[in-house]
Amino acid sequence: MRLLRFFIALIVLIQANFALSQSGKATDTYYQTSDVQPLMVQYDADRGNINRFYTITNSPERRERLQQLYKEYQQQLLQLDFDKMNSSSQVDYILFKRTIDNEQRLLAKEEKEYKAISKYFPFGDEIYKLEKLRRRGAFMKGEELAHKLFELNKQVEESSKSLSQETSMEEALALRAEGTARGLAAALKSVFDFYNGYDPQFTWWVPKTYEELENALTSYASALKGKTHKANPQKDDGSGIVGNPIGKDELIRNLQYEMIPYSPDELIGIAN
Known about the structure:
The protein is mainly alpha-helical and 272 residues long. Helix content is 70%, strand content 1%. The chain has eleven helices and two strands. The chain has a two-stranded parallel ribbon.
């Protein structure tokens, strides 16, 4: 009996596949998917490759490459004929466009904040250059690099002294500055881990100066975060949750991003 059921199921499956092949749909790679699906799949792959190659957060090179990616996919999306799509494809089109627009907005915000705090990192470009050379496997002379790291360490110490004379920063800028300092430390670590123990000259000359510079950057990151100024410090209301106000404009933008057709005031009214 079980064998008979198996053969009946097999016959039904073969007939179904034959019917689909006759309609031409079985050979369509994207059958039952939207017109936007191939673009979305390729986008995820390209963005993943960029994030795996440009790993240092807040670096100008990473930001520039992502900006280029979003622009390219935005142009490809606009070439699709929205009016001729079915409902499923139109939904994907709208959501994918929303994703790209939001990523561009976040990058623009990152760039604006980075420009505002770049004065705290006169040594940043030199460290980014070293990390760029590491990604391409360039040869580094150990003695020259050790001397360069020593000079960079002095610049970090000078910047740290100057920071102590500075007034407090907006919280967003302080957090961006802290993240940038930690990103620079991560860039140096990637260089050190790549060459140390492999290149004898690098292994002889660099470790001590690298360790000193890494410690200086870590301390500098903490000092930058300590410059945070909160206009209206939030207190624990007993819930254990302390929030950070983002402002009405940003709240409205987030509601629009989530496609919630109400203002904050209207939501409060509904809740009441």
